[in-house]
Amino acid sequence: MSEVLSQSQIDELLASVIGGGNVETKVYTEPGDKYRKYDFYSPKKYTKDKLNIIKNTHENYCRLVSSRLNSLLRASTQVSLITVEEERYYEFSNALSDNDALTLVSAALQNQEGSGMVYMHITTPLMLSMIDRMLGGKGDEPQNVSSLYAYTDIELLLYENIARYLVSVMKDGWSNYLDLNFEIEKVETSHGLLQEIGMDEIVVIVVIEVIINDVAGKINICIPSTLLTNIFGVLESKKSSNGKNAGAAEDKTSKDIFEFIKDSNLEVTAKIGDATVMLQDIFDLKKGDIINMNRPQDSFVDVFVEDNIWFHGKLGVQNKNLAVRISETNKH
Q1: Residues 207 and 62 occupy one common structural domain
Q2: What does the pLDDT read at residue 38?
C-alpha cells in the first residue's frame, strides 16, 4: 500500500521543487513507554515473588545503613533502594574499573549448610567522601577522581573498616525471613582474578543509592544464584513445615479444648409437648385431670441440651424410672 502524504509534507515538497532545494525530512517520534527487551536465550530464573523478598530485605537494610552512617559520620544520610535485577555476573563485572575495590562477604545459613559469597562494591567518590569525614574533613565530593584512581594502603584499611559497619547490619536486614550470618573475608582490588563466580552465572544485583550531604554514590551488592538457591530452599521448607505444624497445632488445640470441657455439667431436659390453658382452668385443676399436649400419641419427644434441641427420642421406662430413648439427632 502506497504511503499517503500529509498536507504539511505536500507543502514542503512543493516548496522544495519550486526552490530547487532538497526535501528536509523530519522524523517524528511518538512518546511512549520504554520496554526492556527480554532475552529468550537466557530466561529469568527467579520469579517476581522471590525478587520481592530480596527487595524487602534490602529496604530494611537501607534503613539500618542510614542509621549506622548517621552515627558513624555525624552527617545527614539518605539511603534508598534503586533496583533489584537478575543479571549475568559478567554484566556486574564489566561495570567495574580495574582499580575498583570489591568487598568479599561470606554468607552462612544458620545450619552452616549452603553458605556462599556476596560481593559488595562502593563507588569511589562516595567512599573517599566517607573516608574524608572519618579523618576529620568535611566530606566534600572529591574532584577529578577518574576510573584509574587507586586506593592507598591506608585508604584500603579505612575502606575495610567502613565496610564492616555496612556488613554488620546485613544480618538484621534478613532477620524477618531467616537467620543469615555475614562476615567480611577481604577487600579485593584485583577483582578480575576472582573465580568464585562464573562469568555466565546468574546473579541478583541490588543497587542502593547513598546521599551524604551533597555527595551521592551507590552501593552495589551482587548475590550469586548458588546462595539464593539455598536461601529460597530454606524459606520453602520453613513455609511447608509451618503449614504442617499449624494443622497439627490446630488439631492438638481442638483436642485440648474438648478434654477441658468434656467434664462440664449440662442440663438435659425432655419436652413432651406444649399446651395453652386458661388461668381459670389451671385454678380448677385437681388430681386425675388430663391436659391435652396437642401431639400424637407416638410422636417424638424433644431432648434439650441447655436451651437447644439436640435429639429426638421416645418416652419409656428403665429400672422403674421414666427415660427417653434417643431415636435421632437434630441436624438443624
Answers
A1: yes
A2: 60
**pLDDT confidence of residue 2:** 47
Q: Is 262 exposed, middle or buried (0-12, 13-18, 19+ CB in 10 A)?
A: exposed
Does pLDDT of 36 surpass 90?
no
Instruction: Evaluate whether 212 touches 76 at the Cβ level (below 8 Å).
Output: yes
CA dihedral over 274, 280, 285, 290, signed as positive or negative: negative
Written as nine digits, the cell of 45 is 530464573
Sheet holding 301-305, edge to edge: 268-271, 301-305, 308-318, 321-329
* 283 in the same domain as 137: no
Residues in the chain: 332
pTM of this structure: 0.61
198 and 301 belong to one structural domain: no
- Tell me the C-alpha distance between 237 and 54, whole Å: 18
Q: How many domains does the chain have?
A: 2
The rounded Cα 61 to chain-centroid distance in angstroms is 14
- In this structure, the answer to whether residues 199 and 70 fall within a common structural domain is yes
Domain boundary among 238, 255, 285: 238
Can you read off the three cell numbers belonging to residue 260? 477441658
Q: What's the pLDDT tens digit per position in 266-291?
A: 888 888 888 888 888 888 888 888 88
Please state the three-class secondary structure of 50-84 as a single string. HHHHHHHHHHHHHHHHHHHHHHHHCCCEEEEEEEE
Give the three-class secondary structure for 260: helix
B/e letters for 281-301, b = 16+ CB within 10 Å, e = fewer, are eeeeeeeeeeeeeeeeeeeeb
3-state secondary structure of 263: coil
Instruction: State whether 233 and 86 are in the same domain.
Output: yes
Domain encompassing residue 119: 48-141+148-238
Cα torsion at 274, 275, 279, 280 (round to 10°)? -160
CATH number at residue 74: 3.40.1550.10
65 within some domain: yes
Cβ-proximal residues to 223 (8 Å cutoff; 6+ apart), any chain:
54, 118, 203, 204, 205, 206
